[in-house]
Structure formats: structure tokens, C-alpha cells
Design goal:
16% strand; Immunoglobulin-like; 5-stranded mixed sheet; alpha+beta
Length: 351
């Protein structure tokens, strides 16, 4: 009996301990269920707040269309590039079509002043030679003339050349003055730097970044529909119909930045900064080359100028990591206007 009592006693004690464990577990579960929603709510509150703030910001900021990535403009056949002899023999022997005001003036001077004058002088001299050979040869004139002076001829050959020089001088001086016209203050500055043997284009007005330009391989140039040995991987991108201040310099030897269809040629000298104006040019691609013997790869320094509309030019500037001056001013003015609008609200809350 004693042993059984002891056994039942141990069993009753174990049963009580089990009940106590069950009770503790039940209380723990109840407390967890009671406080868990508040804890979860505290964890989720920042996320909900961030979502609410994001939705408010999205509603307050107007949607703007994403700017399209820059794609090099396809060149126009015959525009801004030389003409092959096989395509047009006559055009291949004269100047390219001009796309600046100065270039158009210079081409007009060449076509309507110089060429007629040179042609007339050449024909006149040729006629005199033929007349002299026929009229004063030994068979036609066995006794040579002993005339030493002729006043009329001397007056003519003095006045006529002077008149011809004046005729050429007036448009020549006008062209010279136009070629060295000072760029206006609002002209966009682009610095062309000559290297052996490639070009670099720096944009001082747009953050000072530099674009390095090398000649394309023949396969890539032909695949892109561009003339071989004139196509480049990175063009000098400029805004169309806008005055340009082109500065030239060099890092090693003397180069020359030349784009024939823009009537532009300027030496790039190490340690010296030359400057010249290009008036607004229409949209398009214009090709040129280094025009100063600068080493063994002088013939592999092509130039490609691409003129884009102003909005596309500014998008290209931002894509290159540069800065648009007008956009910076707008960003500075915007917070000030917002602060002025918020001041009445703060005063109202204080009252």
C-alpha cells in the first residue's frame, strides 16, 4: 500500500506539473495574439507611409516624356561631302556646295567674279599670242618694226590691270572681313583640339567635357552609309541655326581644322588658341579633314560635324554628362518659388 500510495502520489504531482505547463503555454499564446497585431502594424507603418508619400509626389510632379537616346544622323548624299569624279566630273573639280552665309558669299565671288575675270584675261592673252605669232613672224614680216614706245598701249596696260585689281579687291576685302568677324556673346563655344592623330572636341559652355573622335573602320563606315576615311565614331555635335565660336588648338604639332562645305579652315597650333565664327548652319552632317601635314597618319584625321535642333543638342549634352546652362537656372529658381508658396501655410498653422 505504501508503495502504491507513493506511486499514485508521484503520478498526481506529475499531472499537476503538466497542467501548469499547459496553462503557461496558453497564456503565452494569448499574450502573443494580443500584442502581435500592434507589432506588425508598427513594422508596416513606415512602408505604408512611404507608399503614401510616393503617391503624393507622383500626383504633384507632372509626367514628362522620356528623352530619346541619341542616334547619329544619317548623312545626305552629296551634302557636306566631296563629289567623286565618276559621279560628276565637273562638280568634282570645284568647291563643295556651301551651307553658311560666308561660304555662300565666297562661292558666289568665285563663280561670278574670279572665274569670269580669269577666263577673260586668259582668252585675251591667248588671243594676243596667236595674233603676234601670225602677224609678226619672219615670213609675214621680214623687216621687223622698230617702234619703241606707244602711248596708247602703255596707258591701256597700266589702267586695265589696275581696274581689274580694284574689281577683285572690293569683294575680297569684304570676304576677308566676314571671315574674321567676332563671334557674338551668345555664340556657343566649342574647342577643337588636334592630337596625333585624332580630334578632341571640348564644350566649355556645357560643363567642359571632351569627346574624342577617331576615324571609323571601312566596314563600319560603309555599313552606316558614310564615306570611308571621312566617317568618325564620335562627331562634333553642334546646334543648328545658332552662331558657333570655334576655338582650335593642338596638343603636339600643328594641325588644321577644315570643313570645306562650311567654308571653315583654321590652324590648330600648340600653346595657342585661335578663334573663328561659324554662322548658323542647317541641320545635317558635314565632313572635313586635317589640312596641315602633321605626321605619318595625317590622312587619317577626318572631321564630322553634325548639326541638330537645339532640343536634341541639349539632350545629347546631358547624355554625354554635360550641363545645360538654362536648365541650371530653372532648377535654382524652382525651390525659391516653392518656399514662397509654403510661407503662408506655416503662418496659418502658427496662428
Amino acid at each position: 500500500m505504501g508503495s502504491e500510495t507513493t506511486l499514485f502520489g508521484h503520478m498526481s504531482m506529475g499531472h499537476k506539473i503538466g497542467q501548469m505547463k499547459v496553462t503557461l503555454l496558453t497564456l503565452s499564446a494569448a499574450l502573443a495574439a494580443l500584442f502581435a497585431p500592434a507589432a506588425f502594424a508598427q513594422d508596416e507603418a513606415p512602408a505604408e507611409t512611404e507608399n503614401l508619400q510616393a503617391s503624393v509626389m507622383a500626383e504633384s510632379v507632372p509626367e514628362t516624356p522620356a528623352a530619346a537616346a541619341y542616334t547619329p544622323m544619317a548623312p545626305t548624299e552629296g551634302k557636306g561631302m566631296p563629289t567623286a569624279f565618276q559621279d560628276d566630273a565637273l562638280k568634282s573639280m570645284t568647291f563643295q556646295d556651301q551651307y553658311t552665309e560666308t561660304g555662300a558669299y565666297a562661292l558666289g565671288m568665285h563663280d561670278y567674279v574670279l572665274m569670269p575675270t580669269i577666263t577673260l584675261i586668259s582668252l585675251f592673252v591667248l588671243g594676243l599670242l596667236i595674233f603676234t605669232v601670225v602677224r609678226f613672224n619672219q615670213r609675214a614680216n621680214p623687216t621687223p618694226s622698230k617702234t619703241t614706245h606707244n602711248t596708247a598701249i602703255e596707258v591701256i596696260w597700266t589702267i586695265a590691270p589696275a581696274a581689274i585689281l580694284v574689281l577683285i579687291a572690293i569683294p575680297s576685302m569684304t570676304l576677308l572681313a566676314r571671315q574674321y568677324e567676332t563671334p557674338p556673346e551668345d555664340a556657343i563655344t566649342i574647342k577643337a583640339i588636334g592630337y596625333q592623330w585624332y580630334w578632341g572636341y571640348e564644350y566649355p559652355d556645357h560643363g567642359g567635357f571632351e569627346v574624342v573622335s577617331n576615324m571609323k573602320k571601312k566596314v563600319d563606315a560603309l555599313a552606316d552609309g558614310e564615306p570611308y576615311q571621312l566617317a568618325v565614331d564620335n562627331r562634333m555635335v553642334v546646334p543648328a541655326d545658332t552662331p558657333l565660336r570655334i576655338q582650335t588648338t593642338a596638343a603636339d604639332v600643328i594641325h588644321a581644322f577644315a570643313v570645306p562645305s562650311l567654308w571653315f579652315k583654321q590652324d590648330a597650333v600648340p600653346g595657342r588658341l585661335n578663334e573663328k565664327l561659324i554662322e548658323g548652319i542647317p541641320e545635317g552632317v558635314y565632313y572635313g579633314q586635317c589640312s596641315e601635314l602633321c605626321g605619318s597618319k595625317h590622312g587619317y584625321m577626318p572631321i564630322a560635324v553634325e548639326a541638330l535642333p537645339m532640343d536634341e543638342f541639349e539632350a545629347w549634352i546631358l547624355e554625354q554628362g554635360g550641363e545645360v546652362p538654362g536648365a541650371e537656372v530653372a532648377e535654382v529658381e524652382a525651390p525659391e518659388s516653392e518656399a514662397e508658396e509654403e510661407e503662408p501655410t506655416e503662418v496659418a498653422l502658427a496662428d
